[in-house]
Amino acid sequence: MSPRLPFRLGLTGSIGMGKSTTAQIFRDLGVPVHDADAAVHALYGAEGVAPVAAAFPGVVVDRRVDRALLGARVFGDDAAMKRLEAIVHPLVRAREKAFLDQAAAAGEPIAVLDIPLLYETGAQGRVDAVLVVTAPEAVQRARVMARPGMSEKTFAAILGRQMPDAEKRRRADFVLDTSLGLDPARAAMAELLQQLRARRGADAEQGDGDA
Ligand SMILES: CC(C)(COP(=O)(O)OP(=O)(O)OC[C@H]1O[C@@H](n2cnc3c(N)ncnc32)[C@H](O)[C@@H]1O)[C@@H](O)C(=O)NCCC(=O)NCCS
Ligand SMILES: Nc1ncnc2c1ncn2[C@@H]1O[C@H](COP(=O)(O)OP(=O)(O)OP(=O)(O)O)[C@@H](O)[C@H]1O
Fold first, then answer.
1. Which among 17, 21, 34, 37 is the best mutation to test ligand 1's pocket, defined by most ligand atoms within 8 Å of the CB?
2. Among the bound ligands, the one closest to the CA of 165
3. Cα–Cα distance between 19 and 42 in angstroms, integer?
4. Which of 30, 46, 7 is nearest to 131 (CA)?
5. ipTM, two decimals
6. Among 107, 125, 150, 152, which one has the highest count of C-beta atoms within 10 angstroms of its own C-beta?
7. Is 145 annotated to bind ligand?
């Protein structure tokens, strides 16, 4: 019998809303996290190099996909971004599956899947619940525009490819406002984990094995 999969908590939110920070909070609380953006970056030095080089000639430098060169080709060009996503998303899913198998083998009760485009790519079917991180629009804008190399145009192009924040919040099982500070976020996530563990314990008692 294969080991029971952990409870899969999907973590999502629009650009600058606090996904990475919240993912780190979960890691600090001892929960394994799979980061889809990091998986994309990793596969650009591995299995993604050949297919991306074939589709986007000139973006591979020193046997790695150069993300700045690739970003300049795809942000703002919908057709090009779609071609890139068709290559990258299946490779990310394969890494995600390997991560979950490993977490199951380790007996982890909960695992977090940090998926920026969770709703946009229909990934809600692969998780047991979704946590959406959010912040007021002005806070989001200030955070994103403070990043080196960010322009209004790139910000707008990225936002245009993401589901509006209000719609994400409407669909979410859980919502975290990251504009309230780090300590409140840590406390809220510790409490959420406690809730999820209790729920999982109750399921196990009812013999709800692999649900
Ligand atoms: C274009 C790339 C090379 C730019 O890399 P770079 O390091 O400059 O930016 P980074 O990956 O950190 O992304 C910046 C922001 O844009 C968002 N974003 C990235 N790709 C997309 C996309 N296809 N649609 C909407 N938002 C996106 C990210 O979630 C993040 O919020 C890279 O984003 C990429 O390969 N994107 C396509 C793969 C993809 O869909 N990734 C999203 C998660 S699986
Ligand atoms: N709970 C919080 N309290 C205070 N500041 C926060 C909190 N969460 C995030 N921030 C701040 O907001 C900024 C953006 O957060 P983060 O990098 O986690 O966003 P993100 O959603 O991962 O962004 P991207 O989609 O671009 O990867 C960071 O400067 C971070 O310090």
1. 37
2. 2
3. 18
4. 7
5. 0.86
6. 150
7. no
Atom of ligand 2 nearest to the CA of 181: 3
What is the position in ligand 2's atom list of the atom closest to the CA of 21? 18
Contact 25, 18 (CB under 8 A): no
Percentage of the residues of the chain whose pLDDT score is greater than 90: 91
Domains detected in the chain:
7-204 (3.40.50.300)
Q: Which residues of the chain have pLDDT under 70?
A: 1, 207-211
Report which protein residue has its CA nearest ligand 2's atom 5: 181
Gap between the Cα atoms of 4 and 18, Å rounded: 30
Q: Any long-range contacts for 35-39 (C-beta under 8 Å, 24+ apart)?
A: 35/114, 36/92, 36/96, 36/113, 36/114, 36/115, 36/116, 36/117, 37/114, 37/116, 39/91, 39/92, 39/95, 39/96
pTM comes to 0.89
In the structure, which protein residues have their CB atom closer than 6 angstroms to any atom of ligand 1? 15, 36-37, 40, 67, 70-71, 74, 81, 84-85, 88, 92, 116-117, 158, 161-162
> pLDDT (tens digit, 9 = 90+) per residue, 83-96?
999 999 999 999 99
> pLDDT tens digits for 68-83?
999 999 998 999 999 9
What is the Cα 165 distance to its own chain's centre?
Answer: 15
* pLDDT for 151: 94
Q: Give the ligand at the shortest distance from the Cα of 157.
A: 1
User: Under a CB-based contact definition with an 8 Å cutoff, are residues 119 and 12 in contact?
Assistant: yes
Residue 77, SS3?
Answer: coil
